[in-house]
């Protein structure tokens, strides 16, 4: 890979042309992967596969996902005939955590420590092997934390002194309606939980269906204030854990 010029990339791409952003990012980086968990991410996969059959995709298995989500992951794997690298938490760290605090401590002292072990640490290990990654983040997913989101950026959360990691957010300006219009138009697979009132889907204990006109983030960590509704995968201030 030649030295990546972020300023030039931003200048030569249009923030509303998601497919072009994905294609050009994949041209710039050989060692790039798509982070997959939800509806937005399958849109990314669909766009990427149309440009390159050798798309790299990974997904976080926290050990607490809905059965529907596990079926969804396998459905996407088969539909696009791709490999999906499934990332799991460190066994020792997880065993120590659950031994000390049980399985539902997040209802008492917040979800951050649990997410740190089950999500952030596996992601951190994966990203250390990559030069860039592509996410399905949208500005309107969580207005309190994502209202400023570039379609291409340095990942300040996971870059190291030895290596700069780049992150692409091609759907930054998309709405939920845009995502679902694409899914319907191109017959893209989606998690069956969406048909049961779930919009934003995470771990089973921390996700619930939302009522009509409720913001999608209301279904995640509903016992916490809105400014806390991030798991540490996309914010600059990483969740502190003993394993970091």
UniProtKB/TrEMBL annotation:
Residues reported to bind [4Fe-4S] cluster: 114-115, 203, 206
Cofactor: [4Fe-4S] cluster
Pfam families per record: PAPS_reduct
InterPro entries, per database record: APS_reductase, PAPS/APS_Rdtase, PAPS_reduct_dom, Rossmann-like_a/b/a_fold
Gene3D superfamilies: HUPs
Catalytic center residues: 231
Domain Phosphoadenosine phosphosulphate reductase: 31-209
Cofactor annotation comment: Binds 1 [4Fe-4S] cluster per subunit.
Highest rank taxon of the organism: Bacteria
GO molecular function, one term: phosphoadenylyl-sulfate reductase (thioredoxin) activity
Catalytic activity line of the entry: [thioredoxin]-disulfide + sulfite + AMP + 2 H(+) = adenosine 5'-phosphosulfate + [thioredoxin]-dithiol
EC number: 1.8.4.10
Assigned keywords, A-Z: Cytoplasm, Iron, Iron-sulfur, Metal-binding, Oxidoreductase
Subcellular location, record wording: Cytoplasm
Pathway the protein contributes to: Sulfur metabolism; hydrogen sulfide biosynthesis; sulfite from sulfate
Function per UniProt: Catalyzes the formation of sulfite from adenosine 5'-phosphosulfate (APS) using thioredoxin as an electron donor.
PANTHER family: 5'-ADENYLYLSULFATE REDUCTASE 1, CHLOROPLASTIC, 5'-ADENYLYLSULFATE REDUCTASE 3, CHLOROPLASTIC
Family in the record: Belongs to the PAPS reductase family. CysH subfamily.
Name of the featured protein: Adenosine 5'-phosphosulfate reductase
């Amino acid at each position: 890979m030649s030295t990546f010029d972020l300023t030039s990339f931003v200048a030569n791409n249009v923030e509303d042309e998601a497919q072009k952003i994905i294609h050009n990012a994949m041209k710039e980086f050989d060692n790039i992967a798509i982070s997959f968990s939800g509806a937005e991410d399958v849109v990314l996969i669909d766009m990427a596969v149309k440009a390159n059959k050798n798309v790299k995709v990974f997904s976080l298995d926290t050990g607490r996902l809905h059965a529907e989500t596990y079926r969804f992951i396998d459905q996407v794997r088969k539909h696009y005939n791709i490999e999906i690298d499934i990332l799991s938490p460190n066994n020792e760290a997880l065993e120590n955590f659950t031994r000390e605090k049980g399985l539902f401590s997040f209802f008492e002292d917040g979800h951050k420590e649990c997410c740190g072990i089950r999500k952030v640490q596996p992601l951190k290990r994966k990203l250390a092997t990559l030069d860039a990654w592509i996410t399905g983040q949208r500005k309107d997913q969580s207005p309190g934390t994502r209202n400023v989101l570039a379609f291409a950026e340095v990942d300040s959360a996971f870059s190291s002194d030895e290596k700069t990691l780049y992150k692409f957010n091609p759907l930054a300006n998309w709405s939920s309606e845009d995502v679902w219009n694409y899914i319907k138009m191109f017959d893209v697979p989606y998690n069956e939980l969406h048909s049961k009132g779930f919009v934003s889907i995470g771990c089973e204990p921390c996700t619930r269906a939302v009522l009509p006109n409720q913001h999608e983030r209301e279904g995640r960590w509903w016992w916490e204030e809105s400014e806390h509704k991030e798991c540490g995968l996309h914010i600059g201030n990483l969740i502190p854990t003993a394993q970091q």
